[in-house]
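hey so i finaly got around to running the thing on Serpin domain-containing protein from Callosobruchus maculatus. pasting the sequence first so u can double check i didnt mess up the copy paste, my clipboard has been acting weird all day
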Amino acid sequence: MKCTISVISLLVLSLALAMASAKDAPLEAVLKGNAEFTKKLYHALSKKKGNIFFSPISVHAVLSMLHQGSKGETQQALGKVLAVPGLTESAKGYEDVMKSLNSVKNVTLLIANKIYIQNRYAFQDGFASIISKNFLSEVGALDFGKSQDAAKAINTWVEGKTNNRIKDLIKPEDLDKQTRLVLVNAIYFKGTWKTPFDEKLTRSEKFYLNDNDLIDVQMMHLTTHLFYKKDENLDAKVLELPYSNKDLSMIIILPNKRNGIAELEKKLDNVDLSTITENMHKPEVRVSLPKFKIEATIDLNNPLTDMGLGAIFSDKADLSGIIKSAEPLQVSKVIQKAFIEVTEGGTEAAAATAAIFGLGMALNADQRMQTMLQTLFFLYLS
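ok and heres what it spat out for the 3d tokens, dont ask me to read them lol
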């Protein structure tokens, strides 16, 4: 049997780490929570037209660290959006996630956390212990009042963790003398295909945006045996492109209709993404895949607010479990920068997320807070 997959209308790709075989309940809880969170965030981001590329697990990781220092209704809201059973399970699960991701073989996969705190301030003992032990976070002190120097220090760390693919994550104007804390997560991936595309077969072809609109792209071609299925529920085809590490793959979902993007998008809301590769078979498949590079910057304030986290951006936020201070903290901004390049040889991707905490309105109306997140990746091309 020979099937043909030509990517002509919609491409949904997610970098999925096969860790489901782990018999660790906290790890499984975090992975399931991240899958649920990915759908919620994707739904919130898809309200805007155009391509969507983000790193869900990094956003999830940063918010999970924030969760550890939250209390009361803020803690409940974060737990619900993150879809995790509790603080202890989340912390233990992330310890396993961090160790597992940083030990993947045959590809380059690095994930790192770092928390910067204002000079002369200190963390609550319990928070510091959990963030260091379970989230494997580095800790550094900065004078955020010297915003140029502080931004440069944070950005240099991010560049080092992402092979210089993510630059200028923090702007000097994001920081000031009211800034108390910046949480940063960075992730970098570089992997080769198990079966590379032949560069000699790459040629300029039409890429359909819908029934009527098309553009020219460099289309790569491959014929080999791959896991594939026709998904009647999604009215789409699903293909798995493996990397040299068999536990890592790119998942491509192609609607059967060129104008089927909106319909597929709605159906994905009700799909458990961790099960999307079930019941696949392995025929010989002809694949046509665009060669592309995308860089994205996403302001996550509004999407996270739509998901139910508006409180963390207001004076209602209870983040009193983070630092030893009577000053109320709140989040002022959440942003992510992401990069991906897909070529005949494989994929290179990176993302970074930072959370900037400032003083709540109870002390100062000119508070600042920014969160930037990064992790494994989800890409929607339209």
